[in-house]
Amino acid sequence: MGKVAVGAAVICAAAVCAAAALVVRHRMKCSGRWARAMAILKDMEEKCGTPTGKLRQVVDAMTVEMHAGLASEGGSKLKMLISYVDNLPTGDEKGLFYALDLGGTNFRVIRVLLGGKEGRVVKQEFEEVSIPPHLMTGSSDDLFDYIAAALAKFVATEGEGLHVSPGRQRELGFTFSFPVRQTSISSGNLIKWTKGFSIEDSVGQDVVAELTKAMERAGLDMRVAALVNDTIGTLAGGRYSNQDVIAAVILGTGTNAAYVERAYAIPKWHGLLPKSGEMVINMEWGNFRSSHLPLTEYDQALDAESLNPGEQIFEKVISGMYLGEIVRRVLCHMAEEAAFFGDTVPPKLKIPFILRTPDMSAMHHDTSSDLRVVGNKLKDILEIPNTSLKMREVIVELCDIVATRGARLSAAGIVGILKKLGRDTVKDVEKQKSVIALDGGLYEHYTKFSTCMENTVKEILGEEVSENIVIEHSNDGSGIGAALLAASHSQYLGIDESFSTF
Ligand code: ADP
Ligand code: MG
Asked: How far is ligand 2, taken at its centre, from the CA of residue 440, in Å?
């Protein structure tokens, strides 16, 4: 070998060595990053842990707060509002009733013909109307006039056999899913608007009076017989189809629960004891908080930057509005601290609420071998083009951690209600069933969430007690529920019966 050739070989070898060193260094850097990302994931998993023992503490805290909220106004983070609903539907209801369901940018008008025990729901019709954005921030009269006009138009389409008895007023159940201080079954003052509504002149006003005036202006003779929210509507709808229903839980954008309490067990109730002995309590459980809730720095930051810091803490850990956002926050941290998505943090990942819970749910349920759905979501939503299978697996794992915590805490909340009612143990003599009516988009569509929640209820209660606990989907019970409550609180109640006796 000549001198030149030897020199070239040496240079080549050096280059190979250098290249190899680069690869090794790159690998080391990558494995360092990967280790850091895994540490963040592991840390999240630990902090979100909900072993049964911890859940039992949450159950007890829920029960304690329920007692405190029932004892006095402002006694607890749980408002435990008295709904004035003391007459849940029995199935005997007869006649034509209306409902109006207002709780977001759409409202629904509903009419049901009830045929008593045999006939049940003979006929049901509804129409959905969207609210023009300018009416969401205008005046109270404008909004209610718009709603009353739609209602009047709907009433005008009453068909064959769909009429109220001559000389009688039509009756309406009003599902109004905004915070209201109820003053009777059919009146209540608006505390504040939420969900993008801001109509200053109606705050503090009686929303039933506002609606009634608008109906009069529209030439519609209709009486609001019951004012409720979606949770109580769901409870009523659930009870109508199953008399063992004792509570309702909504898991949608937000979350809430309502249940049937024994009236004597409500110290702050200063009215007459209802004939039924029962009273529905609107828990407003989204505002529950406890030192036993497993909260992370991500939850703290989410809360601090939210529109309502310090409020709705339970809701911020379990409901559909927030689950995807928690995942985003953890991914963002992994991108910043462990370069999980490469040297730069994907700009889209920094946008709050860009990762919605339905997208999280789609990734979590991805069963394809290469986690294609995860890859596509990352590409479409976060504009992260290339992700390895390993990265996708980490993301699925993260979705699982966040959803599992939410589902297991929801289960603890449900058991808290059962415990308050003394239905968390087996009593030898009465093996009564306890049915909880569930509704909301999160419960309905996030299968891994609802399955985990249902399994956790069983896990906390044990096999024997669980045999008597049923969780039932009350599909869209809130609209028909309000119509049923109009029937069970009708001004003509009792008249029909006395008619038949004489
Ligand atoms: P709302 O609570 O606003 O009355 P819904 O009960 O219909 O409305 O619930 C809608 C919410 O349910 C959404 O905001 C979302 O968080 C959640 N959701 C809807 N679809 C899915 C899905 N496929 N997977 C997970 N969550 C979903
Ligand atoms: Mg809803």
From this structure: 6
